[in-house]
Amino acid sequence: MARYIGPKTKIARKFGEPIYGDDKVLSKKNYPPGQHGANRRRKLSEYGTQLREKQKAKYTYGVLERQFRNLFEKASSTKGVTGEVLLQLLEQRLDNVVFRLGIAPSRPAARQLVLHRHITVNGTIVNIASFSVKPGDLVAVREKSKSLEVIANALAGFNHSKYPWIEWDEATKTGKFLHIPAREDIPENINAQLIVELYSKQ
After folding, report:
1. 108, HSE (Cβ side, Cα atoms, 13 Å)
2. Secondary structure of the chain as H, E, C letters
3. CB 141 within 8 A of CB 103
4. pTM of the full structure
5. pLDDT means over runs of 10, the chain (202 residues)
6. Predicted local distance difference test score (pLDDT) of residue 157
7. What is the Cα–Cα distance from 177 to 184, expressed in whole angstroms?
8. Where do the structural domains in the chain lie, given as residue ranges?
9. Strand 124-125 and strand 174-177: pairing?
10. What per-residue confidence (pLDDT) applies to 12?
11. What is the dihedral of CA 7, 128, 1, 168, to 10 degrees?
């Protein structure tokens, strides 16, 4: 599966937000990358603002253009507010759910766990990061993988109560996707309406 493998610190600095989960780089260099980054204060056009928001969403969730457009088209044909539905579809991706459950420290790490067959859904191994988790589904760490150091370190001290749409059973290393999250519960700083406006022009 194709994925972005470029420099992540530059992307985080470009948007001025810790979209990969690590805000240390921003505390050191809270300005865009490049020779004139610290002095660059260019005003974006309406199109530029909309494009920037789409790029932010794609980088945040680790989704490439074709996947993102397919999700947008699905959101457009689903009942509800398109931008909100789009974010909900992104939240339902298996790699994102693994990240939200605290099984992995980041979405890229969660994607690796999924691809390497460490994760099960309803008792069956699923190695497709884009797999859509449904309400009631049980997402768990495979029995043979429960002793992995990367998983143990990620789960140590993780606060599972901060996401009301999922619950976690520490004894069995199993999470339950209770319901699709409401927009106000999704913590990502993404203005989905700008993305809707961008695609409406194409």
Report:
1. 13
2. CCCCCCCHHHHHHHHCCCCCCCCHHHHHCCCCCCCCHHHCCCCCCHHHHHHHHHHHHHHHHCCCHHHHHHHHHHHHCCCCCHHHHHHHHHHCEHHHHHHHCCCCCCHHHHHHHHHCCCEEECCEECCCCCCECCCCCEEEECHHHCCCHHHHHHHCCCCHHHCCCEEEECCCCEEEECCCCCHHHCCCCCCHHHHHHHHHCC
3. yes
4. 0.82
5. 54 61 53 56 85 95 95 96 98 98 96 98 98 98 96 94 95 97 95 96 78
6. 87
7. 17
8. 8-90+189-200, 93-179
9. unpaired
10. 58
11. 0
Q: Which residue has the tokens 């397919």?
A: 70
| Beta-bridge mates of residue 139 | 121, 175
The CATH architecture of the domain made up of 93-179 is Roll (3.10)
CATH 1.10.1050.10 matches 8-90+189-200: yes
